[in-house]
Design brief:
heterodimer, A: Ubiquitin-like (UB roll), 2 helices, elongated, B: mainly alpha, 10 helices
């Protein structure tokens, strides 16, 4: 396999408006964090799509795997008493 | 020299430098060393071409002979172009492009800062808008200068070779003519000698930080303000103006 000399892979998160969460929008390669921020700005915010940029080395991200979907996420759907919509709030209760 | 003539002449100088450098940078499109740099360099090229466009539009109004920005960009020959000699130098390798860019960015950050105080409102506006772009450009070229200079033996050698080759064209950034005297007297344009002092200081510091040796006893090439250029400009214009030369008066 030929050596990949593109540098480190970074995941990019863009915040479109102040106060909103940063959303993942893609990745860039760069040798270090300063270049990563600049590259992310060029690739993902060229048309003023954001107010804030985060870059994180892809290595730093721990992700759940597809096999885990069952054990991680499904039980919650069965247990309806865990959902906020299960309990009816009586009239007259003001500051719950 | 009469003021309108001086202003027109000066505007052409600014616009030509932006257009030629923008064109040179656009030559990287599809050829960048990595994808991110391909996008970065072409983004920067667009900034320069956009700025050239704004200035040509204003120049056309100042000249008041009905010439549009397209007429000014595509219908003049080398002897009537007043861009600085550094802009027309070949891209060379990535190191040479970065070095050329750094020289120009350092010049522009000081020059446009002063120009944004111009008594000419239009010019001050263009300068203020350009400053934001230049702050980004210099961040990019400055980062690469240090990384290439202090990187591997090869990257340092390439940067040093480029320095030895194109340093002689940096003097062209500070060429002046009668237009400067006329316009500076009215507070329309900055004094290039003060800017040159700041530029030299920044460059010397950066070259040292990037582990480069400044060439000594360099004869600075000049003549751009008389339309005397290196042979490169001929080829650039032949390519850039080829459509208008083949179909004069063409419209989209």
């Amino acid at each position: 396999m030929t050596k990949d000399n593109q540098g480190i892979l970074w995941e990019v998160f863009v915040q479109t408006k102040p106060g909103l969460p940063h959303k993942h929008c893609g990745s860039v390669h760069a040798p270090d964090k300063e270049m990563a921020i600049q590259n992310a700005r060029d690739v993902y915010t060229r048309r003023s799509e954001g107010t804030s940029l985060w870059v994180v080395p892809a290595e730093a991200i721990t992700a759940s795997s597809p096999e885990d979907i069952g054990s991680f996420f499904e039980p919650a759907n069965d247990k309806i008493y865990r959902h906020p919509t299960f309990y009816h709030v009586p009239e007259g209760v003001k500051y719950l | 020299m009469e003021k309108q003539q001086a202003l027109f002449n000066y505007l052409l100088r600014l616009a030509d430098s932006s257009l030629i450098l923008g064109h040179r940078l656009s030559e990287w499109c599809g050829h960048g060393p990595v994808l991110e740099e391909d996008i970065a360099l072409t983004n920067i090229a667009l900034d320069f071409v956009g700025r050239a466009n704004s200035i040509y539009v204003y120049a056309g109004k100042v000249e008041d002979k009905g010439r549009s920005e397209d007429d000014l960009a595509y219908m003049r020959n080398e002897r009537n172009f007043f861009n600085n000699l550094l802009a027309e130098q070949p891209n060379g390798d990535f190191a040479q492009t970065i070095l050329r860019q750094y020289f120009i960015d350092t010049y522009e950050i000081h020059f446009f800062e002063e120009l944004s105080k111009s008594k000419d409102e239009m010019l001050a506006g263009i300068a203020a808008k350009s400053l934001k772009e230049i702050q980004y450009h210099i961040r990019h070229s400055s980062s690469w200068m240090e990384r290439l200079g202090g990187g591997t033996d090869e990257s340092n050698r390439r940067l040093q070779d480029s320095l030895n080759e194109i340093y002689r064209f940096t003097g062209s950034l500070f060429e002046t003519n009668e237009a400067d005297t006329v316009l500076a007297a009215e507070g329309i344009v900055p004094d290039l000698t003060t800017i040159q002092g700041k530029w030299q200081k920044d460059i010397d510091a950066k070259l040292e930080k990037s582990l480069l040796k400044k060439p000594e006893n360099v004869w600075m090439q000049k003549g751009s303000l008389q339309g005397k250029h290196t042979e490169h400009l001929g080829y650039i214009l032949a390519e850039m103006q080829s459509l208008h030369r083949a179909y004069p008066g063409v419209k989209w």
